Amino acid sequence: MKFFFVLFLVPSLLYAQNSKTFKIIGNSSFYNNQNLFIQAGVFPDTYKYNDFNFENDKVGTSNNPYKLVQVQNKQFTINGFQKYPHPFSVSYYDAEKNMGNNSNFFFIDGDTENIEINDLSINRNLGNQLNSKSNKEYRYLKKLYSNSVDTLSGIIHNLKAKQKIMQKYITQNPNSYVALWDMVIDYAINKIYKNDYDKKSLLKNAQLLSPKIKKTNTYQALVKNINQDLALGINKKLPNASLALENDINTIVKKNQFTLIDFWFSFCKPCIAQLPSLKKTYDLYHDKHFEIIAISVDQKADEGNWQKIINKFNLE
Q1: Distance between CA 267 and CA 305 in Å, rounded?
Q2: Continuous segment of H or E residues that includes residue 67
């Protein structure tokens, strides 16, 4: 079973003309001769939140919102284009310890920004160094809701209080890309919204933003993400979908007493690890009206690997 996401390309020259160029110069003695990941926006980009490209990336795809860079001579440079400010972060993965550390988010505008990266396990606040307009706004916004959020861990201990502060801030600053991204960071990246009431409150705050902001990929992806999550909540009616089979989902569900719908992809190690268990359960209970619908979210380029997994585990 395969779902494909079709991404349309636009000419890189046209994209660059409508975007602001940026350059990040990173300085790091601590990570010299090591690899660092630079991430912008949301990853993975299921809902196409992002509207930027790193230099030499395929324009318009934005399906790889991170770049691997090597620190050489204590420095690295990365260039790109963005239509409006995006949040960035830097992370390091230690393969020997099988653990990683990442910076807090920071914002850049156009032009050139310099960042100093020391041990990320000790200092995550790279944004304290930057004086871009959007980053100054982000620091100010975080101070406004600092009584509701742990300043070190970023854990929100009073979500309702933060939402009230955000409501007031957005009402006064409806053209704020930073306010938009702050909501996206909470919802799509940190995934702190667990119940429908909070999701609806977030949606109301987002709808206070200006028509200009509402035209962005980021806003439209956030609203789509929230609405789909509300529709797919516990005790909600299962939405129907046509499958590459002779039946659709609801037809299959009605035929069986129990149906498990499993979303997976062929490079997901935890997904693959549970396939033998799922197959065993299927073999035991299928004749007792139990069915499994396994929906892969692999991209078309990975179809060969997807088919290998299907054959390896003899999945029906």
Answers
A1: 8
A2: strand 66-70
DSSP 97-147: TTEEEEPPPEEE-SEEEEEE---TTT---GGGG---HHHHHHHHHHHHTTT
What's the confidence (pLDDT) of residue 8?
37
Strand partners, 52: 82
- 8 Å CB contact between 133 and 127: no
How many Å apart are CA 307 and CA 225, to the nearest integer?
29
Rounded Cα gap, residues 177 and 246, in angstroms: 45
Of 164, 170, 132, which Cα lies nearest the Cα of 148? 164
Percentages helix, strand, coil for the chain, rounded to the nearest 5?
35, 25, 40
Please give the structure tokens belonging to residue 157.
């201990």
- pTM value? 0.76
Contact 53, 109 (CB under 8 A): no
Among 194-198, 234-238, 264-268, the range of highest mean pLDDT: 194-198
